[in-house]
């Protein structure tokens, strides 16, 4: 690990100022991802700006939105009454992530900003366009069982590893950020990016901006929800494929539905076409199969992840069925 | 009457120390002025080091030295001709690179963080050559080692003529031991030819011997401490290059040096279970009598050592079959040398053999358990000898009853529970029941306490606890007055803790030394205490730390006896080993595993619901620690069956999942209720306790039980471990895509 300096500002402004003065600096929250990146030599900040003193730990209801501070711990968020009752999908997704110990450290902002788990990204002696632009993508011709089937490019086929973000994408959350020029709001589904020609960029947050909160609008999705995570071991493993489903059913008709997937793309993968196809329809297996079929259109697989297309197809149906019968 | 201590679920004698942090593992030691080391490891898989630039690294704060082949002190014992000999890769001998991750330099600094940072600044240039890490693509290099010749009895390939046959290939990926405690060592040269080591090892004596051979200094000048080991599973059965590198660095800077390697380095520096490919072919009569088995195995090794293990061993004697032939070959690759990993060889072989038996049973339409009983070997067909003890049939019966085998519908994919496909599978395992040579000394103090010492190891099974129980039974001294000390090279000789032999080997020596001690006490009493004058040692009763005359009229405590004679202590030593019995009997432990699994019909996720494992391991010395051993082996087996696989990118020869997040050892959620049963019948011949080994059979065969259960649940036969969801998917998805 590089030698680095460490500051612990106690105001938002001080934190943003500290970042503006030093280009290699990084914010550190729970540190569960950043420290690994530093130990592996992937990220070499000369300064760490510890944001844990900032007043960003609140969860509160503001009229029609639930406001979640960027420093709220994953475990606290999952266990919060308002989340469990109003957005159980988010609670389930959080609990499917990492391990209890990690969730006790991991923050909302850090979870959104966590980097891909692609092995080539973590091993500085192998090529990776995301870590070192133009060095090549190790995964495309290498081991790519965990990699993307949607929205990838010839430069990078990595996936975003988060579970929480899949639920937030499904729930139409908004990201609140603050920077030297003030505050701005980014729709959650626009926060993360596809790799395209700039795989080094995971998201649309500027280097000197800080996530302050996430907001979720009030939804009717309190009953028919499912977060299905398929993984190689029962806990403490990243998703091969995950599916977040939330729907509102009345009189045997799907009034409103959200579907998003994890483990399949460089960002949480919303399925707008499948949602459209199911809106106003009856929650039947046949309709779910049609929707799953729509969802997997355009999937592109590589040497080791061909199964993900089939797994996605199956998992979407399974999650829809589970949510509908919940 | 005195209470028998062996066979009781006695708590671990060192349990309190372990859970309160009082147990000192190698890295907890802190000699004065200790320096810290970090390794620089090769990023190529084959070639030579062209240059090492240490300018930047040497300028980094706190750096004491950087040692490599360019400046390492000489190792007198390195053989001049061979890059590796029986002591392994000759680290820092020259600039050759044989595998990725091979240490090329060791950086020493005054803190660990500084050493690690400086190591990242060392710049190494290589002349790269073509490397080979892919076994399938390197089969042309396969060869046979002299230790593992072809075996046959009866007719070769007789299976081909049988009315019912089965032949298939089974593959197991490279697996890494990954104990929680990382490898490393503290090395301290207290004089130019005197070395003290705090090691993580399964055998302090073998470390001492290796160091003696390599550095050519007297045995008594080498002190190895290793009282506590945080798990090893076989990876600490030898001295590795990382340890020699540290010893060399300590020699050069003349200060104690500590190295603890990283989790990534655990994949390349301390061995692994070699990946393997096995073909098993078998034939049977229509009514299920085996007529021939052919077992061919290939596994990898390093370019400089031939690592062999018992992959085809079990096939030779497990079933009563007249015609058996085996072949075992090695493929040398640009990889570090493998090492025994729990259930070594047999765990690999049993997956193939016990899967194949299961497959054959479906072809024969005979219950797989029935097929095994039908072909039960009553005597050892390989050596034509009786078994010293074999209660495998009883174990089958216990297991079948406890798992509810009779409720199993024999047809594959016929059972469902809560929307999951349900299946039952079983298998058996076996491993040689060994007894080696060991020496134990016993010191009885005038305060009545007994201390036993032997250079044995404890990697977690509860060695000291078992030894205390054995000693208590022989001497009649209460267990709380007995201490068993291990893990010091200054203690009398004991072999490494491996091959499930510690209770048998060291326990026998404990038993012997305790008998010697009693005789000594008896002689003392007979010669010095009037009431005992007329008795013989055999007539004396030994109970509760007392000597009692046969008529129970006179008693004398050990304390009184020693105090009367003004003796501060009585010390005796005994060496023990087996005799002729090994030539007359075949000695094996046996295990039986039953598993009930659920498989999710659309995602292919396997969840084991219930496990029943039964061991025929002779008399069980401690039912509590033995049960823990079995459960530990089963958890290892779950990993082998469902999750563990170290994956290489052959383009680079580098692992892509060399960390705990991506290399999946089972977690609690993967581990279902596990019921352990012991036949618990004495082996009459193996040793005084009648105990056979347990550690290996806990895992051997387990993966096949799971795979067989998965087949029963799904109708899909997975012959390539681990059984990850993607391997069970194709059928489910094709069913679903029929729109
Ligand atoms: C072994 C392992 C398994 C895991 N498994 C899962 C899993 O199954 N599912 C899952 O979803 N996650 C998983 N995780 C990831 C885990 O969720 C993340 O590491 C965690 O959420 C990161 O949060 P943190 O607060 O620790 O971030 P840090 O490590 O502190 O920071 C991560 C990054 O975010 C930046 N950052 C932090 N806060 C802010 C902010 N407010 N504004 C701007 N930038 C910020 C930091 O600068 C840094 O670049 C796993 C992690 C590990 C180590
Ligand atoms: S997939 Fe992306 S992160 Fe992985 S090696 Fe390729 S460029 Fe790097």
UniProtKB/TrEMBL annotation, chain A:
Pfam families in the cross-refs: CO_deh_flav_C (PF03450), FAD_binding_5 (PF00941)
Molecular function, one GO term: oxidoreductase activity
Keyword set includes Transcription regulation: no
FAD-binding PCMH-type domain location: 1-221
Keywords: FAD, Flavoprotein
Signal peptide: none
Entry-linked InterPro entries: CO_DH_flav_C, CO_DH_flav_C_dom_sf, Diverse_Substr_Oxidored, FAD-bd_PCMH, FAD-bd_PCMH-like_sf, FAD-bd_PCMH_sub1, FAD-bd_PCMH_sub2, Mopterin_DH_FAD-bd
Protein name (Swiss-Prot/TrEMBL): Xanthine dehydrogenase YagS FAD-binding subunit
From TrEMBL, chain B:
TM stretches of this protein: none
SMART domains recorded: Ald_Xan_dh_C (SM01008)
Pfam family, one: MoCoBD_2
Gene3D superfamilies given in the database record: Aldehyde oxidase/xanthine dehydrogenase, a/b hammerhead, Aldehyde oxidase/xanthine dehydrogenase, molybdopterin binding domain
Domain Aldehyde oxidase/xanthine dehydrogenase a/b hammerhead: 20-130
Protein name per Swiss-Prot or TrEMBL: Xanthine dehydrogenase YagR molybdenum-binding subunit
Organism of this sequence: Chitinophaga polysaccharea
GO molecular function, one term: iron ion binding
């Amino acid at each position: 690990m590089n030698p680095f300096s460490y500051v612990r500002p106690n105001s938002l402004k001080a934190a943003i100022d500290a970042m503006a003065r030093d280009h290699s600096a990084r914010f550190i929250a729970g540190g569960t991802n950043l420290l690994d990146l530093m130990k592996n030599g992937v990220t070499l900040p000369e300064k760490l700006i510890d944001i844990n003193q900032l007043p960003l730990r609140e969860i509160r209801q503001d009229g029609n939105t639930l406001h979640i501070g960027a420093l709220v711990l994953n475990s606290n968020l999952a266990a919060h009454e308002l989340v469990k009752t109003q957005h159980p999908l988010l609670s389930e997704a959080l609990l499917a992530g990492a391990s209890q110990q990690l969730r006790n450290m991991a923050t909302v902002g850090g979870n959104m900003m966590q980097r891909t788990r692609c092995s080539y990204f973590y091993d500085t002696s192998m090529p990776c366009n995301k870590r070192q632009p133009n060095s090549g993508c190790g995964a495309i011709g290498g081991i790519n069982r965990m990699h993307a089937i949607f929205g990838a490019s010839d430069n990078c086929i990595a996936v975003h590893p988060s579970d929480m973000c899949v639920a937030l994408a499904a729930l139409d959350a908004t990201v609140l950020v603050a920077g030297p020029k003030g505050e701005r709001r980014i729709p959650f589904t626009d926060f993360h990016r596809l790799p395209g020609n700039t795989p080094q960029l995971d998201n649309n947050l500027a280097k000197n901006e800080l996530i302050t909160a996430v907001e979720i609008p009030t939804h009717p999705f309190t009953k028919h929800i499912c977060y299905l995570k398929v993984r190689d071991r029962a806990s403490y493993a990243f998703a091969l494929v995950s599916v977040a489903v939330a729907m509102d059913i009345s009189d045997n008709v799907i009034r409103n539905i959200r579907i998003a997937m994890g483990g399949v793309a460089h960002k949480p993968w919303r399925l707008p076409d499948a949602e459209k196809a199911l809106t106003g329809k009856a929650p039947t297996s046949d309709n779910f199969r049609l929707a799953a079929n729509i969802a997997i259109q355009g999937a592109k697989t590589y040497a080791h992840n061909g199964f993900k297309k089939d797994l996605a197809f199956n998992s979407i149906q399974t999650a829809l069925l589970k949510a509908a019968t919940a | 009457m005195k209470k028998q201590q062996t066979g009781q679920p006695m708590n671990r004698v060192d349990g309190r120390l372990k859970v309160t942090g009082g147990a000192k593992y190698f890295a907890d030691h802190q000699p004065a002025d200790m320096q810290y080391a970090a390794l620089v490891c090769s990023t190529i898989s084959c070639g030579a080091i062209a240059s090492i630039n240490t300018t930047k690294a040497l300028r980094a704060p706190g750096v004491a030295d950087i040692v490599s082949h360019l400046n390492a002190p000489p190792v007198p014992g390195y053989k001049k001709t061979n890059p590796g000999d029986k002591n392994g890769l000759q680290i820092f001998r020259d600039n050759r690179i044989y595998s990725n991750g091979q240490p090329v330099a060791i950086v020493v600094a005054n803190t660990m963080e500084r050493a690690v940072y400086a190591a990242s600044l060392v710049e190494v240039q290589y002349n790269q050559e073509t490397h080979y890490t892919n076994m399938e693509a390197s089969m042309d290099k396969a060869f046979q080692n002299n230790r593992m010749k072809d075996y046959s009895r009866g007719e070769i390939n007789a299976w081909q003529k049988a009315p019912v046959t089965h032949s298939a290939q089974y593959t197991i990926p490279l697996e890494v031991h990954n104990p929680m405690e990382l490898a490393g060592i503290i090395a301290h040269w207290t004089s130019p030819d005197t070395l003290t080591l705090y090691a993580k090892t399964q055998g302090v004596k073998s470390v001492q011997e290796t160091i003696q051979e390599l550095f050519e200094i007297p045995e008594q000048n080498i002190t190895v401490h290793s009282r506590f080991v945080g798990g090893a599973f076989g990876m600490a059965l030898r001295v590795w290059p990382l340890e020699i590198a540290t010893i060399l660095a300590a020699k050069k800077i003349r200060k104690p040096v500590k190295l603890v390697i990283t989790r990534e380095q655990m994949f390349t520096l301390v061995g692994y279970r070699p990946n393997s490919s096995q073909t098993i072919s078998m034939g049977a009569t229509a009514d299920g009598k085996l007529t021939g088995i052919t077992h061919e195995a290939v596994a990898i090794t390093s370019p400089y050592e031939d690592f062999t293990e018992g992959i085809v061993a079990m096939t030779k004697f497990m079933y009563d079959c007249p015609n058996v032939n085996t072949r075992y070959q090695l493929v040398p690759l640009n990889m570090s040398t493998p090492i025994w990993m729990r259930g070594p060889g047999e765990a690999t072989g049993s997956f193939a053999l016990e899967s194949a038996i299961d497959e054959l049973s479906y072809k024969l339409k005979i219950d797989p358990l029935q097929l095994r009983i039908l072909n039960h070997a009553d005597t050892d067909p390989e050596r034509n000898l009786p078994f010293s003890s074999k209660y495998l049939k009883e174990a089958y019966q216990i297991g079948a009853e406890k798992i509810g085998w009779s409720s199993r519908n024999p047809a594959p994919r016929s059972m469902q529970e809560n929307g999951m496909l349900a299946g039952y599978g079983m298998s058996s395992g076996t491993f040689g029941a060994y007894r080696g040579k060991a020496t134990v000394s016993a010191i009885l103090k005038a305060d009545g306490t007994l201390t036993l010492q032997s250079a044995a190891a404890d990697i977690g099974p509860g060695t000291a606890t078992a030894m205390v129980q054995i000693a208590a039974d022989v001497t009649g001294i209460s267990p709380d007055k007995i201490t068993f000390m291990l893990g010091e090279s200054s203690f009398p000789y004991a072999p490494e803790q491996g091959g499930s032999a510690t209770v048998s080997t060291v326990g026998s020596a404990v038993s012997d030394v305790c008998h010697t001690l009693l005789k000594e006490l008896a002689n003392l009493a007979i010669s010095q205490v009037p009431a005992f004058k007329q008795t013989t040692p055999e007539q004396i009763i030994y109970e509760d730390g007392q000597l009692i005359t046969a008529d129970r009229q006179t008693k004398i405590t050990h304390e009184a006896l020693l105090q009367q004679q003004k003796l501060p202590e009585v010390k005796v030593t005994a060496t023990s080993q087996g005799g002729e019995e090994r030539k007359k009997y075949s000695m094996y432990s046996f295990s039986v595993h039953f598993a009930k699994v659920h498989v999710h019909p659309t995602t292919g996720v396997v969840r084991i619901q219930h496990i029943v494992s039964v061991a025929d391991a002779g008399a069980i010395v401690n039912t509590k620690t033995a049960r823990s051993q079995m459960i530990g082996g089963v958890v290892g087996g779950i990993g082998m069956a469902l999750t563990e696989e170290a994956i290489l990118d052959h383009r680079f020869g580098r692992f892509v999942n060399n960390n705990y997040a991506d290399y999946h050892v089972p977690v609690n959620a993967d581990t279902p209720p596990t019921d352990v049963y012991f036949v618990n019948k004495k082996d009459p011949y193996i040793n005084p306790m009648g105990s056979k080994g347990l550690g290996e059979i806990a895992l051997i065969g387990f993966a096949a039980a799971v795979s067989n259960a998965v087949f029963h649940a799904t109708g899909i036969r997975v012959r390539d471990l681990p059984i990850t969801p993607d391997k069970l998917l194709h059928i489910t998805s094709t069913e679903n895509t029929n729109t």
